[in-house]
C-alpha cells in the first residue's frame, strides 16, 4: 500500500414529513447527498477518483394505527464515479427499490405482519441489470399473564430470490460481485418478558 496526500468526504441530508389529514396518511421524504474524493497511484501518477451520489426515499403510511399499520414507498440512488487518469473506468450506476409493510393486530392475542421489497441494480459498465424481490411474513400469538409470552412463526425470503450484489469501481477495474445468502427459511420463535 502507498500513503496518499488526502481523502475527502462530505454528506448531507434533508428530512421532511407532513400529515395529509384528509386522506388519513403521513408523507415522509428524505434527500441525501454524498461526495468523496481520493487518490490511487497508477504508474507513479496520482489518479483522482471522485464519487457523487444523489438519493431520495419517500413513503406514505396511515396515521391511525389502532389495528392496521400500512406503509408503502420507494427510493432512487444515482452515483457518478470519475477518474482523472483512467477515464475509461468512469461509471454511472443507479439503484431503485420499492417496498411495503403491513401489520394487522385484530386483538391483544394476535398479530399478523408482512413486508416486501424489490431492489433493482443497474450500471452503465454492465450489460445486465438485476432485480431482487424479497417477501417476509409472520404470525404471532400472545399469552400468559399480561401477554408476557409469545410464540411466532416467521418466514423469510419466501420467494427464495435474495442475492447479495455489490458493484465496485476502482482505478484499474470494474467489478460486480454476486454471492449466495441463506435463502428461504422459516423460524419458530418463543419470547417471554421477565419481571413485572
Q: How would you describe this protein?
A:
By secondary structure, the protein is mostly beta strands. Helices cover 0% and strands 70% of the residues. It is built from no helices and eleven strands. It has strands spanning 8-20, 25-42, 45-62, 68-83, 91-104, 110-123, 130-143, 149-156, 163-169, 174-180, 185-192. It has a nine-stranded antiparallel beta sheet, with no helix packed on it. A hairpin with a 4-residue loop joins strand 1 and strand 2 (25-42). The radius of gyration is 23 Å and the shape is elongated.
Can you give me a brief rundown of this structure?
With 196 residues, this protein is mostly beta strands.
Question: What's the structural blueprint in terms of helices and strands?
Answer:
Blueprint: E1 8-20, E2 25-42, E3 45-62, E4 68-83, E5 91-104, E6 110-123, E7 130-143, E8 149-156, E9 163-169, E10 174-180, E11 185-192
Antiparallel strand pairs: 1-2, 2-3, 3-4, 4-5, 5-6, 6-7, 7-8, 8-11, 9-10
Amino acid at each position: 500500500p502507498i500513503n496518499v496526500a488526502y481523502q475527502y468526504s462530505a454528506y448531507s441530508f434533508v428530512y421532511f414529513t407532513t400529515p395529509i389529514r384528509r386522506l388519513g396518511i403521513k408523507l415522509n421524504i428524505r434527500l441525501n447527498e454524498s461526495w468523496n474524493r481520493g487518490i490511487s497511484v497508477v504508474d507513479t501518477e496520482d489518479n483522482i477518483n471522485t464519487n457523487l451520489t444523489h438519493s431520495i426515499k419517500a413513503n406514505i403510511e396511515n396515521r391511525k394505527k389502532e389495528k392496521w399499520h400500512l406503509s408503502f414507498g420507494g427510493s432512487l440512488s444515482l452515483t457518478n464515479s470519475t477518474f482523472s487518469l483512467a477515464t475509461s473506468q468512469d461509471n454511472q450506476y443507479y439503484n431503485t427499490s420499492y417496498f411495503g409493510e403491513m401489520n394487522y393486530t385484530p386483538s391483544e392475542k394476535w398479530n399478523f405482519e408482512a413486508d416486501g421489497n424489490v431492489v433493482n441494480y443497474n450500471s452503465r459498465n454492465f450489460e445486465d441489470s438485476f432485480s431482487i424481490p424479497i417477501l417476509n411474513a409472520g404470525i404471532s400469538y400472545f399469552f400468559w399473564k399480561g401477554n408476557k409470552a409469545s410464540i411466532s412463526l416467521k418466514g423469510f425470503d419466501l420467494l427464495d430470490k435474495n442475492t447479495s450484489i455489490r458493484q465496485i469501481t476502482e482505478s484499474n477495474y470494474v467489478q460486480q460481485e454476486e454471492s449466495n445468502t441463506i435463502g428461504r427459511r422459516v423460524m419458530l420463535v418463543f419470547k417471554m418478558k421477565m419481571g413485572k
